[in-house]
Amino acid sequence: MKLYIYCEEENFSALAASFENEFESDTDLSAEIAIVDEAEIRRLNNQTRGVDAVTDVLSYPSLDGIFGVKIQKKSFPLEVDDDGRLFIGSIAICRKRAEEQAAEYGHGISREMNYLAAHGVCHLLGYDHIDDGDKAVMRAKEERVLAKIGAVRQ
């Protein structure tokens, strides 16, 4: 099954394709990404997490209990989008923070934007990085999908 990423500001179609065979589902999935400024990401972070600070990426999963299991469309009938795909959630990425981090880590903005998007999608798929074990599993997934599009760390 495929993942479709809707974003007005950036083209994440290659990243979406790199998630093929990275999740198990009986239907295609969709997610949306909004590219926002510092004021908006700070507002969202404060409103939804109680953290009054600028951050790089926020994820808002729409499905619960999907980590490590086959995602079934029939289990989430209210989350089917207009194209018949199962909507897994929304991601907000702060472009300014992405630019700063790209400079800090010594790679291009495209790699950083794709990394933040991959990170967000992993959260939508139920991955997390609360403890070191979970973090290692999530980082491996991120790096695997990024390698498929040549967006590896330099």
Give a nutshell description of this structure.
It is built from 5 helices and 4 strands, in the order βαβαββααα.
Walkthrough of the structure:
There is one protein chain. The chain has 154 residues and is of the alpha/beta class. 40% of the residues lie in helices and 17% in strands. It has helices at residues 13-18, 38-49, 95-105, 109-124, 132-148; strands at 3-6, 29-36, 57-61, 86-94. Strands 1-2-4-3 form a 4-stranded mixed beta sheet. α3 (95-105) crosses α4 and α4 packs across α5 (132-148). The longest helix is centred in the last third of the chain and has 17 residues, at 132-148. It is globular, with a radius of gyration of 15 Å. The relative contact order is 0.19. The model has no long low-confidence stretch (mean pLDDT 96).
